[in-house]
Amino acid sequence: MEISLAAQHLVKRYDAVVALLDGNLDVQSGEVLALVGANGSGKSTLSKIITGVVAPDEGQLLLDGQKVRFSSPQAARKNGIVEVYQELSLVPDMTVAENIWLAHEPLAWSKIVRNREIRARTGDLLDLFAGTTQPSLRPDALVSTLPPDEKQIVEILKVLSLQPKIMILDEATASLDSRQVNRLFELIEQRKAQGMAVVFISHRMEEIFRVADRVTVLRSGNTVGTAPLDQISQQELVSMMIETEVVSRYIKQHEEAKSSPVRLSIEQMRTPVLRGVSLSLREGELLGLGGLRGQGQTDILLALFGAMPFEGKVTLSGRSVHFTHPRQAIREGIAFVPGDRGSEGLLPVRSILENLQLPSWRRYGLLLRLTKARKDATTIARRLNLVMESLNAPVTSLSGGNAQKVVLGKWLLREPKVLLLDDPTKGVDVGTKGEFYKLLSELREAGTSIILYSSEDEELLGLCDRVIVLHDGQVQAELADTTLTRSELVAASMGTAHGGAA
Asked: How far apart are CA 97 and CA 119, in angstroms?
C-alpha cells in the first residue's frame, strides 16, 4: 500500500487561546516521522485534527493528494488513520478481547459476533508481545486487573487490529519497560516494510533517534522545521524546540527563601511511576516540578496529600510523617489544588459558599455558625476578586477562571503551611492568571511553602525559585539561578540535561 498525509497551515483556537497557529507535517508510506516540541507546542492539537477529534479553524489536510476533512475519529479510521493515545481509551470492566475488537467485532452473516474467532485473533495479537508480559495477560482478562504497561500494550494492539495505513503513537512508550519498547520498535519496522506510515510523538530523545527517519518540530503552535534525523544532532534538535532565551519574571523571586529553614523533605519516594525521587522545600519557597506530563509530578503531589500509596520517607517541619488519607495531611496544614477542578476540586451540585467552606465546616461547631462561615467566605471571595451572582449561586454558574479561584479559595481559609498545585492555571484566561500569580506572592510573603507543577514552561521559569525536572520517574535536573532557563528546562525534559543536571 502507498499512502501520503500532509497537514498544511492548520490553525486551532479555543476562545482567546491559540493552540495551533501554523501546523504543518507530511508523512509517507514506509517511514516514521517524529513529532516533537516542548510543553504546549501544539503536538496533541495537531494529532487530534489529523484523527478527527477536533476540527481546524483554518488550513487543510491532504490524503494521497486529495483534500479531506474528518468529522470524527470514526471518519479518520475509515480512511486508515488511527492513534494510540497517551491517555488510554480502554473500558476497565471489559475484557482484553472485548476492548481490542470493540465496535469492529468479526460478525457472522447473521450479525452474530464470532466470539471464538475473536479469542483466537486476540491470542495472535497478544503473541506479538510474547515474552514481555505476564501470563495473566489473556484474551479473557479484565482490563481493570492489568498493570499500566499491559494496559498500554492492549491499547497498541487495539490499533493494530484495525490494520491502519497511518498510525500515530502519542507517548505510547511512556509506561513500557525496555523489553516492551524493543518489541514495539520491531513491530514498527515490520509495519514500515509493509508500507505503513507512523507519526511518533515521544519525550525520549534516545527513542526518537532510534526509531524515526525524519523529525518535525513544533514551537509555540508553529511548525519550525523538518529534518532527516541522520543529519541533525540532539543538541540541534533541542535548539529548534526553544524560543530565544528571554524570560520575563511574573513575580519577584524571594531571595530570603534560599536561606529559610527546610519545611518539607522527601527521600527516595517510589510509586508505580516514581523511581526514587528526593527533594526539599524551604519555608516561603516556590518549588517547581518540570518535565513533560506524566513523568511523576502528580504522583508526588498526591502522595504528599495522602491520596496515593508510596514508599519512602517524608519529613514535615522536622517530624517524619506518612499520610495515608487526605484528612491527615489537611490536619498538618497541607492543601492540594488538583488539575481537574470539575471532577476533583468542586462539588458541582453545591453552592459557591458550600464549596469554599468544604474543608472547614467543622471549624464552625456542631451547631453550625452559618453567619460566621458566610462572613469568612465573603472575605475570601473579595480577596480573590471572585465574579459571582452571590455565595448561594451554584458553583456551576461560574466561569472556568472563577471556578478555579474557588478551588484555591477553600484552602486559603485554612492558612496552609504547604500548598500543592497541580497545573492550576490550565484553561484559565490571562487576567485570572495574573491575579493568581499575585496571590501566590502574597502567600509566600506569609511563609507558605508551595510546590507547583505546570504544563507551561514559561510559568515555571517565571514563578519558581527552583525547578526539579522529572524524566521517566526520576530527577533529571535541578535548575536554579543561572541554570533556570528555557533551554535547560527543555533539554532536561527530553532527557538531555546540560549544566543543571542533578
From this structure: 6
Residues ≥6 apart with Cβ < 8 Å to 74: 52
For residue 4, give Cα distances in angstroms to 9, 22, 36, 163.
17, 20, 20, 16
Is there a single domain that holds both residue 206 and residue 99? yes
Q: CA–CA separation, 313 vs 450, rounded Å?
A: 19
**What's the pLDDT tens digit per position in 149-195?**
999 999 999 999 999 999 999 989 988 888 999 999 999 999 999 99
**Looking at the structure, do residues 94 and 193 belong to the same domain, yes or no?**
yes
User: 256 and 214, same structural domain?
Assistant: no
| Mean pLDDT, all residues of the chain | 87
Domain that residue 114 falls in: 4-241
Partners of 66 in beta bridges: 63
Work out the angle at residue 225's Cα, subtended by the Cα atoms of residues 219 and 229, and round it to the nearest 5 degrees: 115
Where helices occur in 261-386 by DSSP H, the ranges are 297-304, 326-331, 352-356, 370-383
At residue 195, the 3 state secondary structure works out as coil
Kindly report, residue by residue over 253-312, the tens digit of the pLDDT.
Answer: 555 666 789 999 999 999 999 999 999 999 999 999 999 888 999 999 999 999 999 999
Same domain, 391 and 436: no
Mean per-residue pLDDT for 309-335? Answer: 96
Q: φ and ψ at 377, to 5 degrees? A: -65, -35
